[in-house]
Sequence to fold (469 residues):
Amino acid sequence: MKIIGRKDELSQLDAYQRSGKPEFLVVYGRRRVGKTFLIREWANNEFFFTHTGLAQGGTDLQLAEFNKSLRRVRGEDHRPAKDWFEAFDCLREYIEQSEPGRKVLFIDELPWMDSRKSFLLPALEHFWNGWASSRADVFLIVCGSATSWVVSKLLQDKGGFYGRVTGRLLVKPFSLGECEAYYREAGIVFSRYQMVESYMIFGGIPYYLSLMRKELGFSQNVDRLCFSEAGALRDEYELLYRSLFRNPEGHMAVVAALATRQVGLTREALLKGSGLTDGGGFTRVLRELELSGFIRRYVSYGKKTRDALYQLIDPFTLFHLRFIKDSGPDERFWAAYTDDGGHRAWTGYAFEQVALAHIDQIKARLKISGVLTRQYSWRSTKAKPGVQIDLIIDRNDGVTNLCEMKYCRDEYEIDGAYEKQLRRRLEVFRRETGTKAALHTTLVTTYGLVRNGYAAQVQSEVTMEDLFG
Fold:
């Protein structure tokens, strides 16, 4: 399949290739997001040297595989390296003996190669700082799914890599529009409504989309992948976390606690809910989950940094913990569940996460793409009954959008009770925050609003169609 979307990423890769100077590019992003596919397709699989680290294995095994990669390009006379310093010396010799021209070196899953006491990073640092950084013909690309490792060891390193990485490329999940393009290219026919629900389950992860079968309907695909006994994604949650984090039990305890509270938890509440102990280890777990895109840390409108909340934002993790984890094999589970009240409750929260992932599209619909904005959520600390606003777009033009997300199968109809609730929400927010901004009630829905007498309470609308922009 050809590359879908990724125009900015391809443009950046082309620019680094044409720069005429030594480049050290770090490519990172969530596992299964398509990093390797992107790089290999961009290069047409024509690398001067390429190697992929092993998911498991100590230094000896990792070195043995690296030696094999060198032997494939250098020939049988290549001497096996005994440590990483020798390995990168052999790579340097190979480059020095080659013909003139740009040389793309691609090392995939670099974090996996960093086994205990391997001295991989000092050797790579020496290779780059001591030699390759002065070679205008070298374009080194390193890639890894363990985002926290990549960021801490390479991008935010205060030692030998500080200031040495010349570029970074974060590969993000597909947007809804890119998902639609992928389905079209694969010959998979879903309605946009089904594509949104697919995003609620699988996010914009290309690998998960690639498992869909075009001869099946949407619910059939979900049942086959997630709920059948041999479903390809039935054990994905465990495999995903164990492939990304060493000792992932703490990470899974945190996301399990967050899955019970949609609006999120403070650090203190999360400690209690996860059963973990406070300290550097807990801080590391939170940081790694945030860097890997599983959770977000945010400050509610008008709150201080110390009051920050942590919220689970990875669709598949939420779906697994909500539905797959405690379900037995049932090839008709999802098809039968779509009319259940629990399904409607889940879609309400999951649609909010879809909206949060498409802030740029919402801003485009509101015609404020060029306006500086900040996104928040907010909960009243005084009003009874309580008031909660899941998405606030605070704008630099004196307007604040108070957004409500409504996922439904038809146009959404505001009745008298809900119109009163919208007015009260606005009044409570203005009173408690003391804001002087113009407050616009904004509804994000699947098919828009029924135009009745209560709809005038809404200043702006965003529909499912706008999210595909």
Notes: The chain has a mean pLDDT of 93. The radius of gyration is 25 Å. The chain has four domains: 7-170, 176-229+329-349, 238-321, 361-467.
